[in-house]
Structures are given as structure tokens and as C-alpha cells.
Amino acid sequence: MRIDIITIFPEMFAGPFTESIIKRAIQKEIVTIKLHDLRNFSTDKHKKVDDYPFSGGAGMVMMIEPIDRCIAHLKSERDYDEIIYMSPDGELLDQPMSNVLSMKKNIIILCGHYKGIDERIREHLITKEISIGNYVLSGGELGAAVLVDSIVRLIPGVLSDETSALSDSFQDGLVSPPVYTRPQQYKNWEVPEILLSGNDKIISDWKFEKAIERTKERRPELYEKLKKK
Predict the structure, then answer these.
(1) CA angle (87, 126, 38) in 5-degree steps
(2) 126 by DSSP, 3-state: which?
(3) Domain locations in the chain?
(4) Are residues 118 and 142 in contact, defined by beta-carbon separation less than 8 angstroms?
(5) Which candidate, 99, 107, 110, places its Cα nearest to that of 82?
């Protein structure tokens, strides 16, 4: 998979993409992540990429020309499955969406900033808009990093145990059941005996019941969806 990220702050990705799972995925050449500084596509002598909004109002708007030039440059080199804009009013990111995107070959992610981007970009260039939550960040970079992490970890060969991703929260519409590790006893806090029984069927049933209970308690909207199926 190749992921191209358009941003005015490429340095913000140094931490998320140079550590842990994404770092290993890049080293294994399973995924290629390229950062593109939008200012390099500005024709303004000061590398300006924003301007005042028509009709007035507070804040600045990212201009159409440098974004169009950057996307056109990338599309001249390869075909893209999706051109994604990180936006607070986009479709909420969830596990099924990450699953689908993890099967794509090439995607572009555009990180907005200021008061957003010229609406014509959304109308004519963007194929998908994604939000990571009902709140506003200073820019799309942090959201893009979250999106990339949620996608890359699902690509075969990235995780050392590929079955791990299949048992994550939300893969089956439920949150994950509680998990435990050594020591068996700590400060008189015990690991449930059933997990030590060695009976796979009983353990599996217990985990499913706990996942149902936890989903009902913590994510009732998911539980209601399951009840309707």
C-alpha cells in the first residue's frame, strides 16, 4: 500500500510514523508513506496557501490552486483508490471503514487547517471525507495519523500475530472482553479462574459473554445495533 499525505506541517508525523507498528511496516516495505508539503505547490513567492474567505468572517481558508496542483501531480504518477479529506463533518471513522481502506492500493490524505479548505476542492477532487470524532482539532494531521495507524495495522504481514487484529474491539461489533496476564495474583487481586481452566470452549463462551456485557454497559449504541440483527 502507498499513502500520500498532503500537509503544511509534515514534521508533525515524525513521531507517529517513526515508532512502533507503522515504523516496522515501512521497514518491511509493506507500506510506503510519503509526506508532501503543500507549500511546495504554491506559486506565491512567500509560499502562501491560505487566504481570507469571500463574504468575510473570522479565520483563513486553504486555497484551491496549491491543493489542485499537488493532487494533479500525484495523480500523474499513479491511480488512486481514494482521495480523503480529514474533516470534522466527515463520515465517522469506524472499524469497518478501516477494514475496507486497508485493502486499497493507493490513497491520498489531505490535511486541512485554519477554517478549512475551499469548498470546490471537496466538490471536485475529494472522493471521501473522514472524521475521527465530533470535535475540532487545529488541523487534520493528528486525524490523518490516527487513520493511517488504524489502516496499516490491518495489512497482512504488519502484525507479528495476524489473528490479533481480528480479535480487536469492534471487529465483530463488540468491544473486547477483559484481558489478564501474569502474575496470577497481585495484592489479592485474582485472575478469573475460568481463564486458567484450559477449556477452550468454556473460555471462549466466557469471553463472548463479557464482551456482550461490556458493550451493553459502555457502548449501548453498538449493543442496540446487535439486538436488531
Answers:
(1) 75
(2) coil
(3) 2-152, 167-228
(4) no
(5) 107
Same fold across 2-152 and 167-228: no
Over its length of 229 residues, how does the chain's per-residue pLDDT go in tens digits?
999 999 999 999 999 999 999 999 999 999 999 999 999 999 999 999 999 999 888 889 999 999 999 999 999 999 999 999 999 999 999 999 999 999 999 999 999 988 899 999 999 999 999 999 999 999 999 999 999 999 999 999 999 765 556 556 567 789 999 999 999 999 999 999 999 999 999 999 999 999 999 999 999 998 998 888 7
Instruction: Give every CB contact of residue 105 below 8 A, 6+ residues apart in sequence.
Output: 1, 2, 81
Q: Give the number of other Cβ atoms within 10 Å of residue 128's Cβ.
A: 15
| Chain mean position to CA 122 | 19
Answer whether CATH 1.10.1270.20 is correct for domain 167-228: yes
Contact between 216 and 223 under an 8 Å Cβ cutoff? The reply is: yes
Lookup: cell for 51: 487566504
Judge if pTM exceeds 0.85: yes
Kindly give the pairing relationship between strand 61-62 and strand 50-51: antiparallel
CB 113 within 8 A of CB 138: yes
| Class in CATH terms, 2-152 | alpha beta
- Quick check: helix, strand or coil at residue 116? coil
